[in-house]
Amino acid sequence: MDSGFIEPDFYYPLPDYKFAKAIYSDDRLPLIGELGDLQHNYDMDRMELFDEKTLYNQLIPEGMFDFFANSYLVVAGKQVQK
After folding, report:
1. Is the pLDDT score of 1 beyond 60?
2. Among 57, 59, 63, 76, fewest CB within 10 Å belongs to which?
């Protein structure tokens, strides 16, 4: 089924979409060691259950960062017809 949208662009705001410190894309994914400061949460206390930096450092070389990203931003538009 054709939605009429051109191919959408996906972006990954971190630490979340509300107060992003960085926004990554498929053209510029994070590098190993870049995601060490994800401890910000402005609306409630945050419980850390595992070492997120270690997890991301393992996901990045496996090409799985986009799948496990905390937040997504999708930009899509309609094809302009002339």
Report:
1. no
2. 63
Residue 47 is given by DSSP the state: -
Are 42 and 19 a contacting pair, CB within 8 Å? yes
Sorted by sequence, the CB contacts under 8 Å of residue 61 that are 6+ apart come out as 32
Our CA angle for 47, 63, 14, nearest 5°, is 40
Q: Cβ distance 22 to 13 under 8 Å?
A: yes
pLDDT digits (tens, 9 = 90+) for 11-37: 999 888 888 888 999 999 999 988 876
